[in-house]
Design brief:
This protein is of the alpha/beta class. It contains seven helices and seven strands, in the order E-H-E-H-E-H-E-H-E-H-E-H-E-H.
């Protein structure tokens, strides 16, 4: 029987974290998920403690740093698969079994794709998604769908011995590029997920775009 772990970063999610963890408990059970809290300053951690949830209180360093911490945890626990999803309910936990099923059938990476529902995205999100997906596909030499989705499942073995440099939102893209450029991942599959926006984005449009471009051109330069 395969072992898997669901890991979810959180940051100032007091309005949604209670509902989110209840859904996770219903879908995967209490012992299969952990919350990595990126130094929340609201009541997120208080809510998690009251609910008896296994969570890691981390210093605030950014989503990418939290993701890297989650990768280390999954490797140390020796699970076969790890699924990452955000804790703001933009990623419905009820889709997790579909990720596990595709990983069990041989996929090394499963991405939650909003490809079918892009028309529901706000215009700026749509343009950002299409442009970044196009340029990442160009860099890795294969067509990808929705490279900006944070709802992903991995075979844990492909995450070993990766050198990630970034610590913010661009880390998910850095991870994807390095997995594909090093050919650690050959088989990708997708789960169709809905477009859900129920909170103000924590992404800083200017700063995070600049971080993405810096990371992208750094990796592009190394491949030239």
């Amino acid at each position: 029987m395969t072992e898997y772990l669901v890991i979810s970063p959180s940051y100032n999610e007091e309005e949604r974290i209670g509902e989110f963890v209840e859904k996770l408990k219903d879908v995967v059970g209490l012992d299969r998920f952990i919350i990595l809290d990126d130094g929340s300053v609201d009541n997120t951690q208080t809510i998690l403690r009251k609910k008896g949830i296994d969570f890691y209180p981390l210093p605030h360093r950014g989503k990418g740093a939290t993701l890297r911490e989650g990768i280390d945890i999954a490797i140390k626990r020796g699970v076969d698969f790890v699924v990452f999803l955000d804790s703001d309910l933009q990623h419905p936990p009820e889709f997790i079994p579909q990720f596990i099923d595709k990983l069990e059938k041989g996929a090394q990476l499963v991405i939650g794709s909003r490809w079918r529902y892009l028309y529901k995205m706000p215009r700026d999100r749509y343009l950002s998604n299409r442009l970044t997906t196009f340029f990442v596909s160009l860099l890795v030499g294969r067509r990808l769908y929705d490279t900006q989705s944070g709802f992903r499942g991995y075979r844990t073995e492909v995450l070993k011995d990766l050198s990630l440099k970034t610590t913010q939102y661009e880390t998910e893209t850095e991870l994807l590029i390095k997995l594909l450029k090093t050919h650690k991942v050959k088989k990708i599959d997708y789960v169709s997920i809905p477009v859900i926006y129920n909170a103000k984005s924590k992404i800083n449009r200017f700063k995070d775009t600049m971080r993405f471009l810096k990371m992208y051109f750094s990796l592009l330069w190394k491949t030239c």
